[in-house]
Amino acid sequence: MAAEAGETAASREQLSLLQPPGLAVAFATVAVAAAFAIYFFGLGRSKEKALSASESEVEDEDASPKNGEVKKAEGGGSKKQKWQQRREKTQQSTFSHPLLAATLKAHSSNVTSLDFSNNGKYVATCSDDRTVRIWQSKDFGDRDHKSSRANVELDHATLVRFSPDSRAFIVWLASAETIRVYKMSKKDDGTFAFSVAPNDFPRKHKAEIINIGIAATGKFVMTASADTTIHLWDLKGEILATINTNQMTNAYAAISPCGRFVGSCGFTPDVKVWEVCFTKTGGFREVSRAFELKGHSAAVHAFGFSNDSHRMATVSKDGTWRLWDTDIQYRLQQEPYLLTKGKYEAATRAACRLALSPDGRVLALAAGPTVHVLDARTARLMETIVGPHGPEAVLELTFDPLGRYLASCGDRAVRVVHNAAGFTAQAEELEEQARVAPNEAVRDRLRQQAQKARQALRQITAVA
User: Fold this and answer.
1) Deepest of 312, 328, 345, 395, by most Cβ within 10 A of its Cβ?
2) pLDDT level of residue 33 (50, 70, 90 thresholds)
3) What are phi and psi of 75, to 5 degrees?
4) CA distances from 453 to 4, 163, 313, 447 (A)
5) Sign of dihedral through CA atoms 412, 417, 419, 424?
């Protein structure tokens, strides 16, 4: 028991080290949760769509699909089918890395998207297999990982995003080309049941969708397509505003973690950022241009925000990545300024995925099947993760909100690795600050914080 208590205390200490300042403020409040409940599920609750078989199904990661069970009962299938199943399972399980924290396996087809809940407790994944699965991050250290399954009727989801209160999620439907909302209800055994909102959002986009999101404030939903269109919606599925990015084509768009900004990048060599403005009473007012990130010489593949939106990172087809200071007075026409830049030759050959850690210290880049993890401040390469999804390209790359993990999808499994680079970068930065601190008291405080980061790093590497 003493050992378990020690591990719990150590885990909490790790969380406090990497948790960005003001995280709780950015997350949804009780009012946000109430707003979601009222708008998505309060109206027409009796009309909720039933999920097939049951609202939720909890399965072990190695559980066989039901149609497989039927085939076995009828005769077990051919030897070729069995060999192919064993071969696919072996191929999916061969990846290993010293920092691997968890492999989430249950989908029978490729995972197309993943998202961490704002409280860091859950991971949502969606797949071509017509299901969405909810996993619990507290199980990452376990050998087996169970999930709660929500079925996507007569369609499949290509994107999934949690609501700010972590009690609902939205998906983009591939065939219907619209948003569907799911509510999560926790059962006595700790798993989830799911119910679907009475109505899907109206179909408005005319081009392929590249991203969706819900603002941390709970005030709007964003959908962005590959033409030049970004729609902002209220929670009832009515359009608040439409943004024409004028970038010829959109490559990526996202809402900032603070919920104030929407950014986009595409064919042009810049990133455009808008502020979504509301009145003091919560009513939508306008979308206004905030600032632009200029400096790349070719199309921008992707970008990311730090948790407080004071840092942004970009990666471009010109073969470079950049880290920007965006803690500016943009209403006074102050421009963001460049902090760091580095080379990333893979970006000249293929589209890239980018993730910036919540504290802005670590940058993860993926072009094709390999992930590179860098110290965003010094541009030093910290980790190379080769083939987390075999030969498949990384489709999505994201840090959890507390900065503990980096997760990716690309094949039928989700790979989760420890963010060791985050603790290393934090310790080194604190040690540098301690050397130039103005007095002994400040030096001692910074050194103690650096020691805690080093201790957390040792715990990760010891487990690995």
Assistant:
1) 312
2) low
3) 160, 0
4) 21, 31, 24, 10
5) negative
